[in-house]
Known about the structure:
Layout: H1 2-15, H2 28-47, H3 65-69, H4 84-90, H5 103-111, H6 157-163, H7 171-174, H8 189-198, E1 205-209, H9 215-221, E2 226-230, H10 238-244, E3 248-250, E4 265-270, H11 280-293, E5 294-308, H12 309-321, E6 326-334, H13 338-343, E7 345-353
Parallel strand pairs: 1-2, 1-4, 2-3, 4-5
Antiparallel strand pairs: 5-7, 6-7
Helix pairs in contact: 4-5
Amino acid sequence: MVATNILSLYHLSSTIQSTPPAPPPVPDHLIHQLSTIRATINHLTSLQPTTPPTNKVPSSSSTPSDLLLYTHIAPIASSCKDHPLLLHQYMNYTPFALCPNDSPLAEDLILRGCHPLPRRRCFSRTISTIPSSLPTNPFATLPENTALLGHYSCKTFSCFASTKSDMGFDMKVEKSRFLAYKSDLDLPIQQLFQLSKSAKSVIRLALDIGGGTGTFAAQMKLQNVTVITTTMNFGAPYNEAVALRGLVPLHVPLQQRLPVFDGVVDLVRCGRAVNRWIPLTAMEFLLFDVDRVLRGGGYFWLDHFFSKRMDLDKVFSPLIGKLGYKKVKWAVANKTDSSGVKHGEVYLTALLQKPLTK
């Protein structure tokens, strides 16, 4: 009804003139909005029961109403329509055959908000060689020929390990991470446990956002803490590496709602994937979704977040302050690489504790 009134007002305003010309055509975006509203109304109307509800137990031949709800397919993210070329490439496949080897294309769509991806009637590709069991040591060398790496420049895990040591594939480097204290920006795991113990808090379940190959989860596993890692495959098989280490990867972008129930996690860590390049609206959404999944007394660890110093003071610190968390640790230091010096950037490492009650 609102859409119809808007269209009527548009026509009236265009025809009240001294010499009425031919009315202009209705813009496509108004027609699209009207069609969307009408389709939504029709859909909602179709969900209404045709007969008054009763308290009778359904017979064995009728379908329970709650089961009918589960038959609704999850909707495609609305932003899929904004990238028709990518979507067309992704949907160009042979039904009931092997899916194309197009993992980078799926990443491109997910990062643009087209997530969950449209369902495809093709079969995912898998590797024929699989490990006989999960590793007892999450810092063992990643086994070769256990992942599809054809679309990467490196075709083996050892190649990734030798390319750049900070990518997370060199286990000789990874096994010492999160253990040593080199500057105020560091928070060794043992110090983290000491802080939680002094606060009479416990860390059992954690979520690592943007956790790369899952090294934080691996270190915490050695402390009998379960950590789920969200990670994307930015030019490297991060999800495969996490899984091969006997850990749990979630293929989730930063802008998606965390697939975790409210108030069940003891710790949420945000790695270096969370930084000043994230749009402010998405950053705020992320912070408040972290608050949603954290239990009272739980910890939020912002690890080596970098931004311009002025933005940290005027934008990000007030945004973080909206959570109303207790500052257990707040350390700021200059980002001394070439990019950091050029843009006047700083690192922030913060450990914040959620209040028990609001």
